[in-house]
Amino acid sequence: MNKNIHKFLFLFFFAIINCFNLHSQSAYHHISDKNLYMFLDELAGIHIIDITSGIKPFTRVKIAEYLQEANKNREELSNSQKSRLDFWLKEFALETGQLKTSKGQIYQKDSILSVHLLTPEIAYKDSLFTALMRPVYGYRNFSGGNKDFWVTYGGAEVISYIDKNWAVYASLRDNYQPGQRLAQPKYFTQEQGGNYKGLTGGGAGGEFSEMRVGVTYTWNWGSFGFIKDHIQWGDNQNGSNIFSGRTPSFPMIKLYANPAPWLEFNYYHGWLVSQAIDSARSYFPPDARSRTVQRTKYIAANMFTFKPFKRLHFSIGNSIVYGDMDVQPAYLIPFAFYKSIVHSTHWRISFQNNAMYINISSRQIKHLHLYATYFIDEFSIKRVSDPDRYNFTGFKGGFSINDWPLPNVYLGGEYTFSNPITFLHDEPTTTFESNLYNLGHYLTDNAEEYYGTLRWHPIRTLKLAVFCVYARKGNYYEYIRGQRNPRVDELPVLEDIIWEKKNLGFEAVYYPLPNLRIFASYTMSEINAYDIDDKTGQEYLDMFTPEYLHGRTNILEIGFGMGF
After folding, report:
1. For domain 3-280+293-562, is the CATH number 2.40.160.130?
2. Predicted confidence (pLDDT) per residue in 277-316, tens digit
């Protein structure tokens, strides 16, 4: 796409957002703050607030609104919920129009400047500009596995609001994992993915830098922004099967609209990282350093959320991954059904990969949340009536019960299943991936998982939990277009199990101060792999599992963290 078209698109979007009556701001709160999002789920479960939990992250202003709404109904909360509510209100004080006050405050100038030592942060507020600046740091120690090791992350974050409409936020952190890499593109873990480089000075682990940043403009029924962040779509308790958010963050333009109480709309167009070399544009001189150029890769995705009844949310959307071309203007149309556009824009070529998805969430019965997600990678009516063939689809269904029959207790469970070839594609610039990490469920295709958890909040901000996981992966397939005997839609489903996991774990998390958490967990784990097809069990273990989790282990993890 030439520069004139880029300029036109920018001016077009800028003109649109200036046509509305504007207010509020949209700085996104990261999806890794699971304890906060769990608390919002609890409040929604007891009918204090109504949230669209299948689309994350939320903005910090929206979270503050939910907390203020809960504060107006304090009499309906338990003592533990009141304590946690007060804690989170301090964390989001700036978004409620106040400067945070605490015992760790060392300086305050009127209602303009506030400086805190515990935990460190500087907050500023005047009639035009509001900002929060603070360090980000965390430490985790793992012992009891095949290898004892520790990992850290460190950096800083800034959250700022300008006037009533603009928000600018940034988070920069370096992740240092000297003994073990917690995430790799094919690892079946919930760890955040990163584009690793080797350790400075050598070693078995790795390190990577993660920069999340965004600038957004908000009006009274929506927002538009340029951001580089993580997106998670699909209700879940142990990993979404639409967009999981596990990939390294990638840049995108993002649109949110809430034009009616019964309708929400989300859209983004992202610039993915293919890690596929464009040999025609790369240079490999014999006596000098080579210069490689990656092939282009993009994604456009939308989700319509309808609310026909209070606390019943029905969401439907679609996406397209495309590459080896300039940005396609048709995919910048937020409300389109992209599969239909493909028939004209990509006629008789295959530089695209479509998907559709449905998410249903019901909290109509107080204390009970029921949800289901259906991911459709490829679908044909002919396959439905043929018992020997299947569509490339994935399913997740789950429930949770909180504060009934016992207060401060949460019980949840879910089941996930994906047919073979789901999430896969046959070209590097159209795979459902970025930086080689799958955008969807962490187990990818031909897999299933059972998950259960029981949480208890006995006092203040303390969480105690027990969880169990059983997951297994069937034959490792590749998408080979035109394959016969069998065809790709006839490959056996979970016939030979190549990888299996059984986990029983206990976890404790406590927040002694705003933005500071300490945690500990003990997990009894057994992860095995088996000699199937042309690979040994050890090869599958090395492919799918970090070394410290191989076989039967008892992992003790302790640590602390500031920031997300």
Report:
1. yes
2. 988 888 888 777 788 889 999 999 999 999 999 999 999 9
